[in-house]
Amino acid sequence: MARPYLYITRKLPDEIVDEFRNAFDVHMWPHEEIPVDEETLQHHIQKANALLTMLTDKVDENSLRVANHLKVIANLAVGYDNIDLKSARDKRIIVTNTPDVLTETTADLTFGLLLSTARRIIEANQFIKSGEWKQWSPFLMAGSEVHHKTVGIVGMGRIGSAFARRAKGFGMEILYHNRSRNVEAEQELQATYATFDDLLEQSDFVVCLAPYAANTKGMFGKRAFQKMKTSAIFINASRGLNVDETALYHALINKDIKAAGLDVFENEPINKEHPLLSLNQVVCLPHIGSATVETRERMIHLCFENIDLVLKGDRPKTPVS
């Protein structure tokens, strides 16, 4: 019996992929840092029984039109807005993602981004490396305190709750806004539900961890930034499209808010001419929220498990509803 045809859209470690070659006829894009091109993806979609995709791969209606053998798309991410779910559903293709396994790692990074931005760690590192440190002074690289401040979390899902546990360790008061109340977070973390506007007005730190959807696109725009404290710091580790970057830039240069830390952007990758990179009060990271070796390996294994289960006719571990 022929092995199922599996196409992987990015070069993954051979020591992991090799574990599954007996079960699948594996075909893999040979580059780790270069995304698969559209022509190659289309070629393999016509033959594949399964796809293992990245968040950067656009799997739209046109791509899926020729997917006559495809049974499952395993997305190596929590998000799945790169996949046309309706078209997949119409063709009875199951889509899976990788929640849970990256929750704690992403929460670590998000809190690290908050600390780095508040305490000007990246700026201070560059300051000393460029030879500008001549002597100590009382307010040299003075930043903002984090402990016992108020943090407003927009998106109190798995990652939002994990981030809140870290904030609790710093004695922070936790406000949150979500599409539905998170009673468990309220009980465990003494988090307080707030309207979006109230959260913006009261928080010293505003952290966006909301998934991307039509109603979250650009939710952090001019109006939102003007409602925030002028001393507030904004952190985004969710989806770039949740933020109007032009509005954020103007909010920073007009001192409507104090600083920002960003792990995601509207269009990725950004180039070195991006306006936000010109501001010292902005910390920018290249979408590395879940980028630890251990977590990425767990994500890959979960993708393979989901593919194997679907092709055997069983329910996958983490289907996208």
What attributes characterize this protein structure?
seven-stranded parallel sheet, 12 helices, 2 domains, Rossmann fold, D-isomer_2_OHA_DH_cat_dom, EC 1.1.1.-, NAD(P)-bd_dom_sf, single chain, alpha/beta, oxidoreductase activity, 321 residues
How would you describe the overall organization of this protein?
- The chain is α/β, with parallel strands linked by helices and 321 residues long.
- The protein folds into two domains: 5-99 and 293-311, Rossmann fold, CATH 3.40.50.720; 103-284, 3-Layer(aba) Sandwich (Rossmann fold).
- The protein has twelve helices and twelve strands.
- The strands form two sheets. The chain has a seven-stranded parallel sheet with strand order 8-7-6-9-10-11-12, with helices on both faces. The protein has a five-stranded parallel sheet with strand order 2-1-3-4-5.
- The chain is globular, with a radius of gyration of 21 Å.
Q: Which regions contain 5 or more consecutive residues with pLDDT less than 50?
A: none
Overall strand count: 12
Compute the CA-based radius of gyration: 21 Å
Q: Do you know the CATH topology of the largest domain? A: Rossmann fold
- How much helicity do the residues have? 25-40%
Count of discrete alpha- or pi-helical segments spanning 4 or more residues: 12
- What structural class should be given to the helix and strand makeup? alpha/beta
CATH top level of the largest domain is Alpha Beta
Mean pLDDT: 97
What is the assembly state of the chains in this entry? single chain
Number of domains: 2
Strand order of the largest sheet: 8-7-6-9-10-11-12
CATH homology superfamily name of the largest domain: NAD(P)-binding Rossmann-like Domain
The CATH architecture category of the largest domain equals 3-Layer(aba) Sandwich
Domain D-isomer specific 2-hydroxyacid dehydrogenase catalytic: 8-320
Domain D-isomer specific 2-hydroxyacid dehydrogenase NAD-binding: 111-289
Keywords: Oxidoreductase
Organism: Aquibacillus rhizosphaerae
